[in-house]
Amino acid sequence: MSTRSYQGCWTCKRRRRRCDNARPTCQSCERRGVNCEGYEVRLRWGSGIASRGRYMGADKPLEESVPPRLKGRARDLKRDGKGAKFQGQVRVEFDLMVPGPGERLSSKCEKQKEEEAIFNEYLPMKVNVRYDRLKNRQVITDGINVLHSTTARDSMLQHRLPQLCEESNALYTICLAFQLSLSSTRSPLFLEYFDTSLRKFRSELACSTTLSDGTLTAGLLLCSIGLMHGMPWTIHLEGMHNILQSHGLSDTPPDATTSLFRHHLLEVMGVMDLPCFSVGRQINSSTMSRQGSSIGIWRRYCQPSIPRKGVEPVSGLPRSLLDLFAGIGIDTTEQSFWSWSGETGSFMQCYLWEGHRLAGILSLRRHMWMLRKNVVACESLALNPQAVCSVDATALVARILANLDALRLACTERPEEDRFIKNAILYPLFVAGLEVEVMCENRQWQKTIRNCFLGSRQDEILLDLLEEMWTRADPDLNVDDLAREREMEMGLL
């Protein structure tokens, strides 16, 4: 039996701190200079007494607490008396433990009511916001709005979700697991529903002759849980892609017969598949495209031959900018980002899009740096030179953080104007923090990054990765390798 504790090490439990469950000792204790007491199971019987086994009669799990064994006639008399008494006690306890039909029905109805309440939290009539005093900011607490960087009511998922839950048996359970994952006080219940969600989705995926909109939505929500909590999630993308391919999904943009909602789901799938929006992605050579760590869903199915307008609602980014991100490592250059004309949007959106555009340049440079470390790739790199601009990394990081800090202040001053836009800042914030040399030279910028994070579990994991990068101060350290060492697969959405 596994002794893994999902509640953290004993030191973090006692101090009521969040633990990262690292082995053999957690990183939180090491950073604080505290002795980590580990994760071993501790036997505690309280005032009870063991009734059988080697510790029978003991009030503590220690050899010296085992009472001496009675000899001869005294032992037989005690055993006979205890046996009759024990049989009667077991009969009474068994009668009390077995529920009647009415009790079973009552407990089932109570569970259904609890699940309905959790689902209503996930899909509320209005936006639910909690004020975090420690972070001095408002935090969105309902799942449907955490998923979007634009108003969820304007998306196609809001009003379709109840009907989609009827199509997919797994989708309803995944919605419950997603909502429970947002609460730090309901983690045991989340793990229970997450395990159930995995079993239902895998069973549903194995039995799917065609991938329905409900099953596809369930898979994307399951990926969202994984990318927010460092659990494996791209494997589900690959599974859904394989089924779509086996049922006629060609390498051309969806035609007129494809519904708008299916096209929306393919776009979400394509955004999740972009390499720059994942950290520590597990590479499957049999399904990856020439981008190395991506299937290439956006370019193959979502990006037509003519430029498009409009904002993709989950990422909050213009589709024309996503086209550039999808071309990193293929045909996008630094000049492509500098020449991007932008789109018309609110002031807050302009801050966000400018941060992403500049972060895209840093991502492109990091991709080229990784290629240069590969001797074989250097030969192909010489055949396709990339245009490099003269703006250094320090200037780019400063401009990214300036835009994100302005966005943070604007959200604080005008919380009702565009409250979901904060969901989209992870990518530029994290990419700016990956410039280790710049961050070590300008340590006040580290504080800016900490202030911009929203304080979710996803933010804590990503910030912890950055903190280790800054502590080790090794410019050759690859954050994807660091995440894989921790067996994490994160997303920046």
Automatic annotation (TrEMBL):
GO molecular function, one term: DNA-binding transcription factor activity, RNA polymerase II-specific
Keywords annotated in UniProt: DNA-binding, Nucleus, Transcription, Transcription regulation
Residues of the Zn(2)-C6 fungal-type domain: 8-36
Compartments reported by the entry: Nucleus
Family matches, as Pfam families: Fungal_trans_2 (PF11951), Zn_clus (PF00172)
Transcription regulation in keyword set: yes
CDD domains linked to this entry: GAL4 (cd00067)
GO CC term (a single one): nucleus
GO biological process: one example: positive regulation of transcription by RNA polymerase II
Protein name stated in the entry: Zn(2)-C6 fungal-type domain-containing protein
Lineage of the organism: Eukaryota, Fungi, Dikarya, Ascomycota, Pezizomycotina
